[in-house]
Amino acid sequence: MPASALMTVMINAARKAGRSLARDFGEVEHLQVSVKGPANFVSAADHRAENILYEELSKARQGYCFLMEERGLVEGPDKTHTWIVDPLDGTTNFLHGIPLFAISIALQRDGELVAGLIYNPASGDFYTAERGKGAFLNDNRRLRVAGRPDLDNAVIVTGVPHRGRPGHGQHLAELSAVMRDCAGIRRTGSAAIDLAWVASGRFDGYWERAIQPWDMAAGIVLVREAGGFVSGMEGRPDMLKTGAIVAGNEAIHGALLKRIAAANG
Length: 265
Description:
By secondary structure, the chain is an alpha+beta fold.
């Protein structure tokens, strides 16, 4: 399916930033193993990619607002459009030479998410979606969420709270509740990849707390356009505000909501 003008803009920006990340990823494994050196290098890689995305998207769509990991909210004259951008989701993977990380770009129009792109420069995979137009892998494979009707045979992916952050006890309770019924649990280290793989049917469902809008915005569009359901922990569409998200097909999404509610009851 030929990319629209909007998606072409997003793809071109992601591809240019991805070339920068790919070069840096090739170097990170050769750095001296220390806490400070590689971490600083990855932070610089993150900033370089964000600068490229900001410049390319600003040039192509002048006046749009931005919500970005490093810059935060950057207001433009066009308040009806906001780019929501994560230049490097999966920083710890990147730091350790694990090829599971992504650029995530979403466009919000009048408060509604209308387009999303997730790109892994290490694999070259582009996951793209526009509202009402479906979700695709590399512009040629239509994406659909998995059709499994219950948790028994489902593989569920989740995110674990980072070291030093609250919520480990709550996560362990939810993990225990879900693990009892599903076929397996996975943890990739990238919320963007998690949602892209739910949209593509690799994972049956996903839940996570305490993540940012730029971690999930593009993935929300992908899952919805792939026929899936996405909500907050209470079943409401408040994910970007609360930072908590549950995704899957209708049955798995509902089952996860029930297990999570029971774990917190």
